[in-house]
């Protein structure tokens, strides 16, 4: 009985603390038509302190969505256009020698911002990727022999174009795994496209004013971690991840030859965190199986390695996740 009282209290607390979600969503709706899943995914990444990889063809408002979110939170925003000739110093900064003082001083790069948009991330060579990797994982940067902490909150939102393969470098698995979510963005519906056209042809563009402060996000993240995650839900999350590694144990023998490697323990952690953030967005103090299923595709799609057999049969990681979600017992 005590637990139900706690849940009730927690529910009330989360209901109060998550009221800003509606304000943020309304602010995003002023600039972004449709793309509800994109907006929701950005909020999950923001609240669960995870980086987001966005995949979609050009012109689907990926950059606009990220920029609008940064404006609404009154956060520092920087955009890095990744190109094959980019150097690590162009991202993290470098040491500059001053003849006047005869000393080296540090010039910080665009990575020192709350929101970093890594545009077309797969166009940059390995050295740049490794510099970004340290920033994403350690939340710090090494320039020369000094280490600099990155601002809080710090979020890398990377975009990649799925069509062009010329001049692109596939992201290393270790880096892809650092992204909490990989979100695939599709085209808008007909009615939405009509609205987009009207909105962009109108003389007066919507004015975006800050409605939150970065400190509010840091405080909200602490509350997200308080969202109740029952042991049955924990078991459900672990079962989903284990089914990507040992599908035959879950009656999915046909998937064994389709998966070259399963999801890492980081997938388990991120499924738990993203489920909590999703429950928070829905203004609920506890996680239900539907929350796990809602975030499952975005958390797992980039963490399942497809075998040659799967690629030959045009089987996607989404189809594998669907099979797993249908097979794993729901609590």
Short characterization:
This protein has helices spanning 2-17, 20-31, 36-47, 62-72, 88-92, 126-138, 173-176, 190-201, 214-224, 231-245, 265-281, 289-300, 308-312, 317-327, and strands at residues 51-55, 77-81, 93-98, 103-108, 115-119, 140-143, 146-149, 155-160, 179-184, 259-261, 305-306.
Describe what you observe in this structure.
- 47% of the residues lie in helices and 16% in strands.
- The chain is built from 14 helices and eleven strands.
- It has helices spanning 2-17, 20-31, 36-47, 62-72, 88-92, 126-138, 173-176, 190-201, 214-224, 231-245, 265-281, 289-300, 308-312, 317-327, and strands at residues 51-55, 77-81, 93-98, 103-108, 115-119, 140-143, 146-149, 155-160, 179-184, 259-261, 305-306.
- Helix 10 (231-245) packs across helix 11 and helix 12 packs antiparallel against helix 14 (317-327).
- The protein is globular, with a radius of gyration of 21 Å.
- The two termini are 20 Å apart.
Major sheet attributes? 5 strands, parallel
State the fourth-level CATH superfamily of the largest domain. P-loop containing nucleotide triphosphate hydrolases
CATH class of the largest domain: Alpha Beta
Overall tally of structural domains: 2
Helix content: 40-55%
Q: Taking Cα atoms only, what radius of gyration do you get, to the nearest Å?
A: 21 Å
For the secondary structure, the number of strands is 11
- Intertermini distance: 20 Å
% residues in beta strands: 15-25%
Strand order of the largest sheet: 2-5-8-1-9
Secondary structure tally, helices? 14
């Amino acid at each position: 009985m005590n637990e139900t009282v706690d849940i009730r209290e927690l529910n009330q607390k989360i209901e109060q603390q998550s009221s800003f979600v509606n304000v943020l969503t309304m602010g995003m709706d002023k600039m972004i038509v449709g793309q509800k899943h994109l907006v929701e995914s950005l909020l999950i990444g923001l609240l669960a302190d995870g980086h987001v990889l966005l995949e979609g063809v050009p012109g689907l408002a990926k950059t606009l969505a990220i920029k609008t979110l940064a404006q609404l939170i009154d956060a520092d925003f920087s955009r890095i256009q990744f190109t094959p000739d980019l150097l690590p110093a162009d991202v993290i900064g470098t040491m500059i020698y001053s003849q006047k003082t005869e000393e080296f001083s540090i010039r910080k790069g665009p990575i020192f911002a709350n929101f970093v948009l890594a545009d077309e991330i797969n166009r940059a060579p390995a050295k740049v990727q490794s510099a970004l990797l340290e920033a994403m994982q350690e939340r710090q940067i090494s320039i020369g022999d000094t280490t600099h902490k990155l601002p809080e909150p710090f979020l890398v939102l990377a975009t990649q174009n799925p069509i062009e393969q010329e001049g692109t470098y596939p992201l290393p698995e270790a880096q892809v795994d650092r992204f909490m979510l990989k979100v695939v963005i599709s085209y808008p519906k007909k009615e939405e496209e009509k609205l987009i056209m009207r909105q962009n042809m109108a003389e007066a563009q919507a004015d975006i004013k800050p409605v939150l402060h970065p400190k509010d996000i840091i405080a909200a993240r602490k509350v997200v971690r308080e969202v109740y995650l029952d042991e049955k839900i924990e078991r459900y999350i672990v079962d989903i991840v284990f089914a990507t590694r040992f599908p035959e144990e879950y009656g999915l023998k046909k998937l064994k030859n389709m998966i070259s490697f399963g999801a890492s323990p980081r997938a388990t952690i991120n499924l738990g965190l993203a489920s909590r953030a999703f429950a928070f967005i829905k203004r609920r103090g506890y996680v239900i199986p539907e929350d796990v299923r809602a975030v499952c595709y975005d958390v797992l799609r980039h963490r399942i390695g497809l075998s040659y057999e799967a690629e030959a049969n045009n089987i996607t990681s989404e189809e594998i996740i669907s099979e797993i979600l249908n097979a794993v017992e729901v609590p």
